[in-house]
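worker-3 :: picked Probable ATP-binding protein YbiT
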Amino acid sequence: MVSVNQLTLDFGTFLLFEDVSFLINPRDRIGLVGKNGAGKTTLLKVIKGLQEPTAGEVTMPRDFTVGYLPQVMKHDDRFSVFEETEQAFSDIKRLEKEIEQLTEAINHREDYHSEEYLSFIDKLTEANERFNMVGGHDYKSRIEVTLKGLGFKPSDFERSTSEFSGGWRMRIELAKILLRKPDLFLLDEPTNHLDIESITWLEDFLKSYSGAVVLISHDKAFLDNVTNRTIEISLGKIYDYKASYSEFVKLREERREQQMAAYRNQQKKIEDTEQFIERFRYKATKAVQVQSRIKQLEKLDRIEVDEFDNSKLNIKFPPAPHSGKIVVSGKNVSKAYGDLLVLDQIDFNIERGEKVAFVGKNGEGKTTLARIILQELQHQGEAKLGHKVKIGYFAQDQAERLDDKLTVFETVDKVATGDVRTKIRDLLGAFLFRGEEVDKKVSVLSGGERTRLAMVLLLLEPVNFLVLDEPTNHLDMRSKDILKKALNSFEGTVLVVSHDREFLDGLVERILEFKDKNIREHLGGIYEFLEKKRMDTLHELNKPVAQSTTKNGDATEKTKGQNGKVAFAERKELNKSIKKAENAVQSAEKEIASLESELEKLSVELENPDKAADPEFFGAYQKAQKDLEEKMEEWESAHLELEELEGKRAAMDNQ
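worker-3 :: tokens ->
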């Protein structure tokens, strides 16, 4: 249990939060919410011990472990992906080294009866026991499963981390934290650089995790799927609800309505009482009643209504100039980075007024095609903009592209032209940069503030084609809803690259999925796409290849018959493979049980100094240990193969 006690944090004249207290219980799944700048990230840093509060304290049990994933991190690029992820098991690696050194030392000694030799034996036995207890035999397979779940391919494991983008390196850090299995996860925007499939995997992991989780996210669907408790930071105070985010929004509104009703009733009672006092103050016959009413007012516990932060963005895109019917089209578009082919001869087109989403795993070419459309990248094939198309572009790293040396006002003033220059302060005010805030340096802005400022630059001149690459990464819930509403009312064409399901839902009506160097069109909303994609994936596993029709077009029945024979043969062969894998798993399990029993007996005998001093006996003990390790690896391999084969059979059964 973690106790947050009366925390106060102020920066000079600015009070971030005051007298904040709450408990984090085992198995809590807490969503930390609030507008950008409310203090969410700072609160995580205080809990982690990276920032000292002005007053109050955070207490937790001794040996309690905390895993923290910040929004921005420094990366060490000396290792491969697998080696870097292995850092999560530094204790196991040290134990491995210790066991290796002790074994080496024992093998070179012949003073079998000396105290020093027996001391080495005791240390080795203890080290091996600890190694077994902390899962030293299977940590590499756990690394593989976690990296695959976060979207890495086996071929990526030996690549240097320096070859990956910041988003992929963030996944490596996330993998390390997940593998350490801390008592408490503190996750600051973990989904910002994840694709939809990896988000789904992370949701499942966190839901079944045995420890506690506190996370900041602006992904409503992610919060709803993971959290069971919501803590809101608003105007320096916290409001704690035992509910997921969507339930919290309803409960917060109900609570405020109840407070307002009680407040209005009390105010009416106070007004009536004051009128009575004023009316009969000077009448002797009513003196007792007047004094009684005055005492009632003095003792009255005045109802306070929770302050509500009503500040919000006011986004409205300028009217879109008319463009041709075809906004952008592509034919045989290909793009490679060196030997890495990303897009292979794809065709596409986007028409005027459409709202289209690019979705798919990271690295499949979504941003690449967006930049080809913007004519920022050289490529093969033809990608052509339509008649009178004028683009407004928000890059994935747009907020990071801002000049840190400029102020908020100077950033906009540098780009604005014409009449817009006279309305810069009004425009910034609509994006919550008011008064002295326009003179802030960009370098001190939070991630959300940078995103808002970058969004201002989109509104400086009318466009008819908006290309938005991950525009919601640092926007809070209300800001995302307002942006979504503004895009829905925008009369031009919208192309959005996003992994945010809730943001895309109700915004786009056409989805282009990037997979295997190509794109595939899906009509409908994002949740229809996700459901269909799940079914398609099951359908396509082990799908037999149909024979092409003859010139006369009469090969249909022949093809069906052949496909039936192929399917039957495949199923028969698959069942044989499954039976073989099951036998391998069972055989390995029996041998492991036998070896563990043997090793347990040898460990007991090893406590006898005479036995410990016998080189032959000690050699047998080491051999049993090695045999057990090899058999464990054999079992893991067979078990993984069996799971894969059973998955194929399940897919075939669903056809």
